[in-house]
Amino acid sequence: MTNTLHRFGAPETFQDDYIVFAMAARGINDQDAPPKLQEFLRLALKHHPINVGNALKGGIYRASQNLTPLAHWHRRDAVDPEEVVKSIDACTTAAAVFGRPADLEAFLVDLRKADLGISINISSLTEEARVCCKRARITRHSVGYSLGFHGDLNLLPDRHVLELSTMCGHGMVSHNFAKKMIDLVKEGRRQPKQAATCLARFCTCGVFNPVRAERMLEEARVGK
Amino acid sequence: MQVDQRKCVACSNCVPICPMGAIYIDPAMNRATVNEDECVECFACYRGMSKEHLNPTLVRTIRGFLKLLRIRFDPEPDVCPTDALTEQQLTWPRIVRRAFSDPLVPHESTGVHGRGTEEVKTNDVTGRVNEGEAGFTIEFGRPGVGVRFRDIQKMTMALAPLPITFEKKNPVFTLMSDPATGAIREAILNEKVLSAILELKTTLEHTAQVLRVVEEVAPTLDTIVSIGVATRCDAQGDNLLEPLLKHEGYAVYRGKTNLGLGRRPASATA
Q: Are the Cβ atoms of B50 and A115 closer than 8 angstroms?
C-alpha cells in the first residue's frame, strides 16, 4: 500500500522489513473479499509475522479504550492475531509484516497455491522482492518505485526520527512522538522494545515493524 | 478535534502525539488546547491514545501534590488519563480535512479508505497502468508535514499542460474545478490535510519531463512532495522504468511489487 512505499532509510536498514498486503479492486472483485482476506492472514500466521493488520480495525498492537491505572506497571503488548483475522468483516486491506526473506518466500509459495484471486503486493527492497518471487515461481506483474522526498527538506526531522515515523505512512506516528520515544530510551526511562511497542499502537493498518523500530531505537540510544 | 477543558488535567501526553504539532498546553488555562487552523482532523490523538477514565479532580490533586514535591510521575506516554479528547461535528469545507487525513475514513469519491486510491496495488485486476506507461503517485504533505490545497494546486496547474492524464478515480481529481488547467475548488484551497495523493499517467517517453516539472515546483511549496512511479512488467517480470529512473539519477531500491495474483471474476470480464 502507498502507506508503506516511502519508508525512510538506507537499503541495509530494510533487511528485516517485508510487508505483504492483500486487497480487492473496488467494484470488480470485492464481492466476496472478506473470507479471502481472512485466509490471507491465516496463511501469513504460519510464517512468523512480526505484525498483522486489518486496515479498518487495526493490527495486533492497538490502543485500548478502557485502561486501568495498573496499566502503568503492567500492560498487554498485543492482541491475539486471531482477533485481527476475525475482525475482517468488510472489504479492507489485510497486511502482514515479516522480518526474514525465508518466511516471505514460504508465504509466497502458500499464496500462489491458495490462488485467492485478489491482489497481493510486497512492499520491500524491490530486488529482494524480485528474488523471492522468482524462488516462489511468481512473475511480477507491476512494480512501483519510491523516489523519496522532494522539496524543502528543512521541513523534515533527523534520520532517526524519520526512520521511525515513516513506518506509518499514514502519518499516525508523529515526528514529535518518535523523538519523545528516542529521548525516553536515551534517558533509560524506557527499553527499546517498550518504546517500539508504544509507537506501533498508533499504526491503524498493522504495518508498523516493531522489530525494525527496536533496532532503530537501540542505534539511536548509543548515537549511531 | 477538541479537548474537553473540564476533563483535561494538562498531563501533556497528547502534545507530542499530534502529527501537526497543533496541541499545546495553554499557560493561561493550564489545559491542553488545539490550534484548529493547524489541526487536520486525522484522529491520531483521539484513536491512537489509550484511555483511562479517571476522575479529573483526583488526578489534578495528585499531580499538583507531586509537582509541589518536585517529583516527576513517569506514566505511560500514550495514555489520556481522563478521556478528554472529543471529536467535533465537521462541516464543509473543513470535513475535507478528515477525509484526507484520517486513514479509517473512506473517500466518498472512490470508496477507498486511507488516501482513497488503489493505484498500482490492484493493477493486475484494473489494468490501470500498462507496459510502456508510467503511473505517478505524487503525494503532498508526507511524511508528517501536512499540506494546504493551494500548494497542491500549484503542482496540478504546472502538470496539467504536460502530456499526461490525471487519474479520475482519485480524491484530489474529484476536487478539481477544471482538470484541464489543474484548478482546484476555491472553497478548499486553505484547508490543510495530513497528505493527499495526485495520480497521473504518462508514457515512459515523457516520464523524465514529468519528473523535471515535479522537481522544479516542489521547492516552491510549503510542504514535502513524495514521488512514486509504477509500471507494468513484461512477461518475464522485467520493466523499462527502472533503468530509466536510474538514468535520471534516482536511487531506486525500495518499492512495492504487485504479484499478479488478482483476477477479474468471469462476470466482470464478460
A: no
The count of other CB atoms within 10 Å of the CB of residue A224 is: 8
Write out residues 152-191 of B within 8 Å (CB-CB) of A: none
Confidence of residue A73 (pLDDT cuts 50, 70, 90): confident
In the block, cell 515535479 appears at: B214
Residue of A nearest to B47 (CA): A63
Task: Report the half-sphere exposure of A110 (CA within 13 A, side-chain side).
Answer: 16
Tell me, yes or no, whether A144 lies in a domain.
Answer: no
pLDDT at B110: 57
The pTM score is: 0.95
Contact B40, B146 (CB under 8 A): yes
Q: How many domains does one find in chain A?
A: 1
pLDDT digits (tens, 9 = 90+) for B84-131: 999 999 999 999 999 999 998 877 665 666 666 788 899 999 999 999
ipTM: 0.95
Compute the nearest-CA separation of B186 from chain A (Å): 24
Mean pLDDT of A117-146: 96
CB contact under 8 A, A120 and B258: yes
Supply the mean pLDDT for chain A: 95
Domains of chain B: 2-86 (3.30.70), 103-269 (no CATH)
> Which one, of B45, B42, B149, lies nearest residue B93 by Cα?
B149
Residue of B nearest to A189 (CA): B74
Residue A150 lies in a domain: no
Q: Tally the C-alpha atoms within 13 A of residue B129's C-alpha that lie toward its C-beta.
A: 35
CB pair distance less than 8 Å for A156 and B121: no
B77 at A interface, C-beta within 8 A: yes
Q: How confident is the model at residue A72 (pLDDT cuts 50, 70, 90)?
A: confident
**CB-CB contact of A28 with B125 (8 Å):** yes
> Contacts of residue B145 in chain A, CB cutoff 8 Å?
155-156
* Angle, alpha carbons B181-A152-B100 (nearest 5°): 55
Q: What pLDDT score does B113 carry?
A: 62
Contact: A69, B54; criterion CB under 8 Å: yes
